[in-house]
Each structure stands twice: as C-alpha cells, then as structure tokens.
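Open question from group meeting: does this chain pack into something compact, or does most of it stay loose? Before anyone orders reagents, we agreed to write out a predicted structure and look at it together. Recording both the input and the output here so the notebook holds the full record.
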Amino acid sequence: MAARTGWPATALGLARVQEELARASPPGWTPPPGPLTAAGCYVCFARGVRAQGAAGDPGMAGAALTRGRRLLAAATSAGVAGAPYRPALLALREGPLLEAAVRALPSRPDVLLVNATGRDHPRRAGLALHLGAVLGLPTVGVTDRPLLAEGRWPPDAASAAAPLLLDGEPVGCWLRTRPGVRPVAVHAAWRTGVEAAVRWCRRRPDGPPERRSRCGGPAPPPESPARPRARQAEAGPLSPSTRCRRGNPDSSR
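Structure tokens returned:
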C-alpha cells in the first residue's frame, strides 16, 4: 500500500488515493504491554507569507522519537508547501514534509502520533491515516477539535472519554487529559481503531508533570518536542523575523 500511495500532486488525485485508503484493510494494531518507542511530528510555515496559506510557502517539519519521558532523537526537514491550505486536502500541503522528517529519525517508532485527523474526514482518510500508510507505521491522530465528527464532551475527570461520530460511525473520541482542561480529539488512523487509539493515548509515565505530552508520548499540539524543533529550525534558515504558523485557522486536518 505504501509504495502505491505516495503523495498525489492534484486534489483529484488525492481524493482518489483517499478513497482507496479508506477501503484498505491493513492488519490492526493494539498497544502491546511494556514500554514503546513513539514518535510525534509537526509542521509549520512562515507567518506573514500568505494569510490562509499558499502553495510554495516555506515550511519546516519536525519529528521527535521518545520512550516514556526520554527524548531519544529529533529531526527536521525543510521545504515548501505543496498546495494552498484546503480542509480535507492537507496531505497535498504537508504530507511530503512530514514524511521526510519522520524518515530522518535514526530508527522507526512503534507508533506515530500526528496532528491531523484519520477517519474523521469526508472520505474517511485524513492526513494522519495517509501518512501512516506511506510510512508503513501505525498512526494515531490528535487534534484540538474534530473536522466533521460530533460528540458531547466527556465528564471533567482525567482519562474520561466520549465518542466522536461521523454519520453514526465512531471515528474518534474526545479525551480529557486532566480535570479542568479542554479535551483533545483522538482519531483512529492507519492500523488503529478508536479503542486502540484511545488506549494508547491514556498510557503515560507515572507522575505526569503539568507540561508534558497529552498522550504519554510525543503528541503534536502543543507540548511535543517535535513542535519546538520545527519552530526553532524555521526561525533560522527560513525567516528569522517571523513566527511559525500552521496555515490554517485551527488544528483540525
């Protein structure tokens, strides 16, 4: 699947690949017991180039590899946006940059967390799912809010979850990381169902500090090592006087 998938150059080509990915049936993945090596990835573009994000915007992707609380390695990849920002077509804009950053890590993770949706998508194949297929890695999406799915927030308790439904189908969950904070949206993606995605995101080292990954691994927004790595790199070669932006008004992908 990964070899046939790649990153199409047009919206029509991407839509066709997304439909194929949605129909694919890769072997399912569930978090095994014991410590896992997890990676997270994030991409940003120079602020102030184009308001909503245009093709050719200079960008930087970062990836971080962790085991528990330990940062094992980090990598970055510079390039340009392959397309303007368009909801449900983020793979055109960000896919190759994210792939390059993850491939630059010295070893492959057991699971990859992506700041993007998976099954919560018009064609049931968002960027988190697509990236996993290209890399051949199980992926879990984590975003600030869903793209199309809907569901009530969970109770105000740590690890409380509530389903996110799209056309009556569970595609993710709201997950409360600790009391008093807004829940994050956790998305089923490549080789992961909703249960496996939420189960992984509930795993965390003992005694989580206030500023830590939302999911016990390197979740992308905003605490992941991948995000500051991308921002630091972007502030150097791309645009010292500008701030990083995502090119979209929210974190739904």
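Observations to bring back to the group:
The chain has a mean pLDDT of 84.
Helices lie at 2-5, 11-23, 90-103, 127-135, 194-202, 226-238.
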